[in-house]
Amino acid sequence: IEQDYLNLFILSMRQTIYDLGTGSTFPSVSQDKIQSISVPIPPLAEQQRIVAKVDHLFAQTLTLKAKLRRAQEEIVVLNRAALHRL
Hints:
By secondary structure, this protein is mainly α. The protein has 4 helices and no strands. It is elongated.
């Protein structure tokens, strides 16, 4: 198993695993419940393709977040300039 693939799978199951927990202060998930989760294991090449695609999408997300942050900063500057002219 490609470790990055397994990490992505576990991350995708985070809420499901959390929901399996019992206890109000510190939810605990038993080993039996964890072992009951089926892990789909495609061929290694497919695992690597999935990891590469997720990495690519994550990089795109970071790029879009940076562009959004710059646009928001520009809006602040434009608003200040507009208010200054009033």
